[in-house]
């Protein structure tokens, strides 16, 4: 049980930097603030 929990935590920590990098890339590509907001909403939705 303890090892399983540790693995889930490692996966979450591993995924976060990738999402931040992806989000940063989207900000650089977004021509408008509304697009940036839509990308942020899509990213939040994909989290849950």
Please outline what is shown here.
The chain contains two helices and no strands. With 48 residues, it is an all-alpha fold. The model has no long low-confidence stretch (mean pLDDT 60).
Series of secondary-structure elements, N-terminal to C-terminal:
HH
Question: Number of DSSP helices?
Answer: 2
The percentage of residues in β strands lies in under 5%
Low-confidence sequence ranges:
none
Number of domain modules: 1
Distance between the termini: 23 Å
Question: How would you sum up the major sheet?
Answer: none
Secondary-structure-based class equals mainly alpha
Overall 3D shape: flat
How many E-type strands? 0
Alpha carbon gyration radius: 14 Å
Indicate the percent of residues in helices: over 70%
Mean pLDDT: 60
Task: Kindly describe this structure.
It is a single chain. The protein has 48 residues and is mainly alpha-helical. It has one domain (2-47). It contains two helices and no strands. The protein has helices at residues 2-29, 33-47. Helix 1 (2-29) runs antiparallel to helix 2 (33-47). The longest helix is centred in the first third of the chain and has 28 residues, at 2-29. It is flat, with a radius of gyration of 14 Å. It starts with a helix and ends with a helix. The model has no long low-confidence stretch (mean pLDDT 60).
